[in-house]
Amino acid sequence: MSANNSQAQMVGRRAELMAELFFQSLDAAYVARFEHALAFDLLVGLSNPQGGIDNFAVEVKATQQPVRSGFRISRKIHERLSHSNTPAMLLVADVKQDRLYYAWLRPEQAAASRSDRDTIVVPLTEIDEGAKARLREELAAQRSEAMAA
Amino acid sequence: MRVVCDAHIPYRLVNSRDFGQRARIAAERCQRLATLAPARYPSPSKIDRRHAMTSELRDVTGFRGEKIVELCLTDYKTFPEPLFRPAHLGEKWPAIDYLVELTSIPGRRLYFFAQVKSTTIAPSSRSLRISTKKKDIERLLQIPGPTYLLGVHEPSERVFVRSVHIGTPARAITSIPLHYELTAGNLKQLHGEVSSFWPTGHHKSTVSRFA
Fold first, then answer.
1. Which residues pair with A60 in a beta bridge?
2. Positive or negative CA dihedral for A136, A17, B70, B150?
3. Any CB–CB contact under 8 A between A86 and chain B?
4. Domains annotated on chain B, with CATH
C-alpha cells in the first residue's frame, strides 16, 4: 500500500468514524452504510415524537483543510441528492481538527454566486450542541412540509 | 449485521437500537409463558427485561468505545500525520481488540496490541474504573510484544491507557489513573515506548510509563 493510499484511507476512515459517532449521539434508530457506491454514503433514521422514523440520506466528505463557510461539491452529486425524494445532508468532516459541518442539500443552492458549471458551493453550519437541536427542528419541519404536500 | 434490501443491494447497519429487540421479545415471551403455566415457567419478566436493556447498553457502549479509540489513536491535531494505524481484529479474536501499527518509522512496521474496555461510569478524581478479568490479563501477558488496556469513558469520549507488561500482577485490573489519558503528549510517549521496546528483542518489556 503506498503512503498516499494509506493517508487517503486514514482520512476516509476518520470521517466515517466521526459521522457514525455523531449520528449515534443523536440517538439514531439506525445508521446504514452502503457497501457498494450508491447515490449517497449513509441512510440515517431518527425516531420522531409521533412514533415514526425520519429518514435522510447523508453524503460524507472528508477534508484535512480548515473548513470555511462553504464547501465545494460536484454539481452532479448535488443535483442527484437535492432532487431526490429523501432529504439529503452534506456532512463535512475536518479530520485534522475533529470538527463536523453540515448542510441540507436544496435545489436553490445551484444558483449560488460562487458556483460554476461543474461545482456548487454549499454553505455549511458547524455542528455543536445548538446545531444538534436545530437539526431535529429542521427534520420536523421537513416532515410537516412533506405531509402537507 | 448484514441485510439485503429489496433492490438486492447489500448494506450494513452500523448502528441499530434494534439489536436489543430480540432479547426484549424473548423476555416478553417468558412473561407470557409464566402467566400461562406458572409452575413450569417462574416469572422472569423484570429481571430479564432489565438484563436485555443492560446488554443493549453494554453493546452500544462497547461499539462506540471502539470507534472512539480509533479516532483517538489517529488524532493528529498536533502532529503532521497520525502516529498510529489501528486495525480491528474482530469480535472473535481472543484477548485483543486491536493491532496498532506505529507510523512514521521508516523501513519498520512496529506495533502493539490493545484490548478496549468501555464504560459509562464517570471517572473519579483519580482514575477511570474499568472491568477486566484475571483471564484477560493472563492472556495479554502471554502475548509477545507490548500490550495495553485502553479504557474509554464513552460519554466524554476520553481514552486512557495502561500497560500490561512483565511485572504486572496476573489479576484483574479495575482502574486506570487519569494522568494516563491519551492526550497528544501521552500519544507521543506511547509511540516512543513501543518503538524503544522492539530493538530489545525481549518477550515483553519490564517497565512502562503507563504501569
1. A91
2. positive
3. no
4. 2-60 (no CATH), 62-200 (3.40.1350)
Q: State which residues form the domain around A102.
A: 3-148
CB contact (8 A) between residue B16 and residue A7: no
Number of residues that make up chain B: 211
Residues contacting A40, CB < 8 A, separation 6+: A34, A57, A58, A59, A81, A88
| Structure confidence by residue, pLDDT tens digits, B103-153 | 988 889 999 999 999 999 999 999 999 999 999 999 999 999 999 999 999
Beta-carbon contacts of A109 under 8 Å, excluding residues fewer than 6 positions away, are: A78, A82, A103, A115, A120, A122, A123
The closest CB to that of B14, out of A6, A33, A96, belongs to: A33
CATH code of the domain containing A92 = 3.40.1350.10
ipTM of this complex:
0.84
* Least Cα separation, residue B111 to chain A (angstroms): 16
What is the model's pTM? 0.80
Query: Binning pLDDT at 50, 70 and 90, where does residue A82 land?
Result: very high
Q: Identify the bridge partners of residue A33 per DSSP, sorted by sequence position.
A: A42, B12
More confident residue, A54 or A143: A54
Chain A's closest residue to B4, CA to CA, is A34
pLDDT tens per residue, range B68-97:
999 999 999 999 999 999 999 988 888 999
> For chain A, how many structural domains are there in total?
1
Q: Which residues in chain B are contacts of A29 at CB distance < 8 A?
A: 16-18
